[in-house]
Design goal:
By secondary structure, this protein is an alpha/beta fold. The chain contains 18 helices and 20 strands. Strand 4, helix 4 and strand 5 form a beta-alpha-beta unit.
Length: 479
């Protein structure tokens, strides 16, 4: 991608924006990074939420709030122009290319002005694709992306020397694309946000795991949300592959809109071609050959949803050239990812699990289905206002006690009572994870487990779900 002496504007100071800014500068561009937030907002965000109520005099000297944001100092040192606050149209003067961070919606005025001026506006994911010299395997879906992509990265690494994992997984895809270079493979986690300003992204192999209601505040309708997911394969041709979940009706029918080779995976049906479960064994059938991978019992990650994730990752890796023997070995040893039904500790016969990554009801449903029952569930947070019917149906079947936190607590309690859940078994912990865990510890008796699976975003109490999960683990490990 030729950027030398071009003027590039990056919108959004996040992981993706920072990476795109530094790479564009490295490629010889005159770069400006702009964010609608003030610089002081980034500094405040570095202060843990539990300390906001304290004054500096209450805190030890080594834990005082920071006064600068080191990454901004680094960018300025590289000669990058940083502009914060109101994004006026004059920002676009002389700009040749706009790169957008995924958190920034395309509808904001500065981006609409750029489009009206016929200035190219691309996502950081598309920027990464333009930089990539190795093929990309891209995975999207409402739930299961991180587990599937992490596993996929390990599967690819069992066959190829140079493998990168990035995207919506905490590492910018552009950074990974540059690092891998030629002769390797890239595993990419792709969100609907990343697809919004993407038009020419073309992975060699893409996979769609499932599509259930999420991010409707951003996209407005399920139809738009699904359309964003489907952009992942829109540029693929007959030489490319699309891996689809046969068991999800919304995903299965996508085949009719694909211009590439479609391969299914299924945990419920035995397929003529694809990845599936037969008599408790994970199987790949392709090109009139059948390969046995491992049994469900041998699989390192547990739960039916993880069987689906394993099938999707295995089929994708197989199409990328990974042998069935290598796939089998990795499936047996992979133990899952942090914050996704992660076992933390057992205390007095009570097991504690961190599922902070469950930021929607469908994800929490999958967590509840993993256990046979006797769950003391910690839920709530930044409410996405999704329908709770299916979630509460399973709560009534498998949850002994419901401990609620954050903004969503009031609505979750009201809806739980309407569903018939006993009021005496609902506890409100306010905006404190410590309170929630303290309640859980006091009321739990074997064989009950304590499960943090919020079914909500984290932004009312934390900066992200990772911070929420780490806080949960810190408190549990200190008990």
């Amino acid at each position: 991608m030729e950027l030398k002496e071009k003027k590039v504007l990056v919108i959004g100071a996040g992981i993706s924006g920072f990476a795109a800014t530094k790479i564009a500068k490295k490629l010889g561009a005159d770069v400006t990074l702009s964010d609608a937030k003030e610089e002081t907002d980034f500094i405040k965000a570095k202060v843990p939420k539990e300390r906001e109520k304290n004054t500096p005099s209450d805190l030890p000297a080594n834990s005082l709030p920071p006064t600068t944001f080191p990454l901004f100092d680094e960018l300025r040192g590289l000669g990058i122009n940083l502009i914060f606050g109101k994004q006026e149209e004059k920002l676009l003067k002389g700009v040749d290319l706009v790169i957008v961070s995924p958190a920034v919606p395309l509808r904001i005025p500065i981006l609409q002005a750029a489009l009206n001026k016929k200035i190219p506006v691309i996502s950081e994911v598309e920027f990464a694709f333009n930089l990539a010299k190795s093929p990309i395997c891209a995975v999207t879906g409402t739930n299961g992306k991180t587990t599937t992509v992490t596993l996929l990265g390990l599967l690819l690494a069992s066959q190829y020397e140079k493998v990168g994992v990035g995207g919506n997984i905490g590492v910018a895809l552009s950074e990974v694309a540059l690092e891998v270079g030629e002769g390797g493979y890239i595993a990419a986690e792709i969100s609907s946000y990343q697809m919004e300003a993407t038009n020419n992204f073309k992975p060699h192999i893409s996979a769609i795991l499932n599509v259930t209601p999420d991010h409707l505040k951003r996209h407005g309708t399920m139809e738009v949300y699904q359309a964003m997911k489907e952009k992942i394969f829109a540029q693929e041709t007959a030489d490319d592959f699309l891996v689809l979940n046969y068991d999800d009706e919304k995903v299965r029918e996508i085949k009719d809109r694909a211009g590439c080779k479609v391969i299914y995976f299924s945990r419920k049906e035995i397929l003529d071609e694809g990845a599936f479960v037969d008599n408790g064994k994970l199987i790949i059938k392709f090109d009139e050959q059948t390969f046995k991978l491992c049994t469900i019992e041998e699989l390192g990650i547990k739960g039916w949803h993880n069987v689906e994730n394993a099938l999707a990752a295995s089929m994708t890796a197989f199409l990328a050239g990974v042998t069935a023997e290598n796939i089998s070995g990795v499936l047996k040893t992979f133990q899952g990812v942090e914050h996704r039904i992660e076992f933390v500790r057992e205390i007095d016969g009570i097991k504690y699990y961190n599922d902070s990554k469950a930021t929607n009801t469908d994800s929490t449903i999958k967590a509840l289905e993993t256990f046979d029952g006797h769950i003391n569930l910690i839920a709530g947070g930044d409410d996405k206002l999704t329908d709770l019917t299916d979630f509460l149906k399973l709560v009534n079947q498998r949850v002994d006690n419901l401990i609620l936190v954050g903004d969503a607590a009031k609505r979750f309690r009201e809806e739980a009572l309407k569903s018939g859940f006993n009021a005496d078994r609902i506890f409100k912990a306010g905006y404190s994870m410590e309170n929630a865990i303290d309640i859980a510890k006091k009321i739990s008796i074997p064989p009950q487990i304590v499960l943090l699976s919020p079914a909500c975003a984290s932004f009312d109490m934390y900066n992200n779900f990772e911070e929420r999960g780490k806080n949960f683990k810190t408190i549990v490990n200190a008990l």
